[in-house]
């Protein structure tokens, strides 16, 4: 089917009215960038989901990272997005301005070199992410273990996506269908959603990130709902396999175990966190119990945004008090956060 | 290896030695050689005056260095006002521990860029501060207008063609690659824009407004010019030029070339009936090889929100607004 045929078909959509959640921030950005919303009929609404790892990391985690960065014999590393997120009081950027050693790197594996080159420092990576990035942290720890590096650690805030989707489905918010995250699915496999699809009778579509791909997935989901189907459709077979990436899954299983973890604005979800197993405990920089999450600005509605209950623009702070330059909540801080993306591409 | 020490900034004999060994040696000209407190400039008629500071890290990168950048940056600002660049001052802040070899290389590069631009470095100063071998340069420049009127930011008119002189994001992607130690062939586009302006002038293109595309990228510069001109703008996503390598780099890192800085690219508003001639003229220059028209200016519409001033027609047929850069971009790209 051509893109034009899909657009024509959707333009004549007569219902039912649909709310489709795009789980992943990269999808949200691609949707905004392509102006896709402006091409959908009024009956189909796209809702941004909880797929931004930075947005759901509790304040206590940032506080701990800041504390480590301020220790004179510590070197803290993170992906760029993490630097701007405020903890209770400070962000890693603030810690850097206060003289802490914070550096953003492209690959966590760079730390292996740093740790060997500067043995007098403990090198810590702020390991935040979903299943997509977790295997890289797993590889880092495994290599550090093999090399016997005593001065390399990770501070984990690793989350798995399925418990969050289950929470959304369980909370009764009317999401009719899910655009499943392409990168996470590459690791966990399209079959990962089968159980949720069956239990809650909702269709899932795994898609890549080109606008045409996303459009096709939306069309496929719309027709699935109309026809009463609730299966998992893998539209990204070149990258995503049904059973996932077995090597990565084996690595994750070797290095991490799941446990309860706190999601900013949501609370503790059982089995939603990944923590280093006992064998690798020496590489943990203190990741357990970082659950405390003092409410940001009381008017901030990040929780509702993360759970897909409201569009970012429905938050009273959006674009007024809360902007990327002066973010009140994590959804505005991160480039992958729904509010940040909506603010960047606002005006539709 | 000889390096700067605090004494090189003392004003005494070591300072004199530093000047003799580096700056007098490489930047020599009749103005500087007089070693006076100030240069005497034969100014006539209206002038434009601009200043800019350069803190790029790393100081040497594929396609340029901080010295070349410090000359190009100020010269291009003068050129974009429609002026002929004439005199430049250069203030150096050196951190202790800076190798003389490196400083000499940068001074040579400044001299060569200044010669290419036809601008004379008529005043210079050096300070040394504590640190770790870093280097910062401020340049201020004067350009003369002769009988030409300056080209102002507010000259864009509804219907004008919007042109860019080549691929977006090259400088930004180059610096970011070096900073992250990613190996690729991306080079900075750092260049003097004189050849582009010469061909436009030779072809009698009536430039309504123009600006070089630096920090904040095309999105920011275009919003600024549209706001100043009181117009809106519609771009075609398909026409916005990026090199395949920069496009791939941006794809991997999740960056948007619309917000990435260049150091040798122009944004121009010209009358629609001159657009084709202007593009063809630009393409005859090395720096303008990939010049292209990317859209048109539209009349102000008071009913539309201000942030929808610049709109992009996407490949899919959708439409989205393009706002100025918000928050921080990559620090120290220029």
What attributes does this structure have?
heterodimer, A: 348 residues, alpha/beta, Rossmann fold, 6-stranded mixed beta sheet, 5-stranded parallel beta sheet, globular, B: 334 residues, alpha+beta, 60s Ribosomal Protein L30, Chain: A, 2 domains, 7-stranded mixed beta sheet, 4-stranded mixed beta sheet
What does this structure look like?
The complex is a heterodimer of chains A (348) and B (334). Chain A is an alpha/beta fold. Chain A has helices at 3-11, 25-33, 59-70, 92-97, 110-117, 134-147, 161-170, 182-188, 194-200, 211-226, 246-255, 302-306, 330-333, 338-344, and strands at 18-24, 44-51, 74-78, 102-104, 122-129, 152-159, 177-180, 204-206, 232-234, 256-263, 267-276. In chain A, strands 4-3-5-6-11-10 form a 6-stranded mixed β-sheet, sandwiched between helices. In chain A, strands 2-1-7-8-9 form a 5-stranded parallel β-sheet. Chain B is of the alpha+beta class and 334 residues long. Chain B has 2 domains: 6-144, PurM-like, N-terminal domain (60s Ribosomal Protein L30, Chain: A), CATH 3.30.1330.10; 153-321, Alpha-Beta Complex (Phosphoribosyl-aminoimidazole Synthetase, Chain A, domain 2). Chain B contains 9 helices and 13 strands. Chain B has helices spanning 13-27, 30-33, 66-80, 100-117, 170-179, 194-202, 217-229, 244-253, 275-283; strands at residues 47-54, 60-61, 64-65, 84-95, 120-129, 135-144, 161-164, 209-212, 231-236, 266-270, 292-299, 310-313, 319-321. In chain B, α1 (13-27) packs across α4. Chain B is globular and about 65 Å long. The chains are: A alpha/beta (348), B alpha+beta (334). The A-B interface holds A 3, 7, 26, 29, 32-39, 84, 105-106, 110, 211-212, 215, 323-325, 335, 343-348 and B 180-182, 253-254, 256, 305, 307-308, 312, 314-321, 323, 326-327.
